[in-house]
Write a structure and sequence with these properties.
Blueprint: H1 15-19, H2 27-30, H3 39-46, E1 50-57, E2 60-67, E3 74-77, E4 80-84, H4 93-100, E5 103-109, E6 116-126, H5 129-134, E7 145-156, H6 159-164, H7 179-186, H8 193-206
Antiparallel strand pairs: 1-2, 1-5, 3-4, 4-7, 5-6, 6-7
Helix pairs in contact: 7-8
Length: about 210
């Protein structure tokens, strides 16, 4: 087999070619990120029973599910979150990856909520006894805890979950912030919650394709 096969004629092979296929993103989309987890983001994570953890190591990338009772991911401060490692298949793909490369990404979901929360950062693994005790679930302590130093946080629009009808017929938990409240916090008020919740979010639902 040719180690360097010729590209397929329809392959997209440059940033310029890729950008030409899509409309230019709005200024709001490009500036909606923050570098810390504040009140609304913390409330979203506290209501989330599930996230996807993305890592990359010398064996390649991995995306692994993480889930437990809402609030299982603990906010230690605005820049640090603790993710306990519960019982699994012991492949340790994500943990081995972090030892190779500390860069991680998390995608948090809340039932009934179309918007998701994306968190990027760097991770380290600890066996700190006090932290493991704090994160006990039932009678089981996590074997390890992943401590993630947050570098970027932003809200993702609901189109993907709306197209999937993932939460059809299910309402979000009480106390979960709206997408508008998240983006207003992340942009320090440059975007108003009502502008997103009353205009942008409905437009997403009306323009899924």
């Amino acid at each position: 087999m040719d180690a360097n096969p010729a590209p397929h004629p329809f392959d997209v092979t440059s940033h310029e070619a890729l950008a030409a296929l899509y409309p230019t993103p709005s200024a709001g989309v490009l500036t909606k990120a923050t570098d810390r987890i504040e009140g609304r983001s913390a409330a979203f994570i506290a209501n989330s029973p599930f996230c996807v953890l993305s890592t990359i190591g010398h064996r390649g990338p991995h995306a692994t599910p993480r889930g437990d009772a809402p609030g299982f991911v603990t906010l230690l401060d605005e820049k640090t979150i603790a993710l306990p490692d519960r019982r699994g298949n012991n492949r340790l793909d994500a943990l081995r990856d972090v030892l190779d490369d500390p860069r991680v990404a998390l995608l948090f979901l809340v039932p009934g909520m179309g918007e998701t929360l994306r968190v990027h950062g760097t991770a380290r693994i600890t066996t700190d006894p006090a932290l493991r005790e704090r994160l006990v679930m039932g009678r089981a302590k996590p074997a390890t805890v992943m401590l993630i130093s947050v570098t970027e946080v932003f809200m993702q629009c609901p189109r993907a979950l709306l197209r999937a009808e993932l939460w059809a017929g299910r309402g979000k938990p009480e106390g979960t912030p709206s997408g508008g409240e998240l983006i207003a916090e992340h942009t320090k008020g440059r975007m108003r919650a009502a502008d997103y919740d009353k205009v942008v979010a409905p437009n997403c639902a009306a323009n899924l394709y």
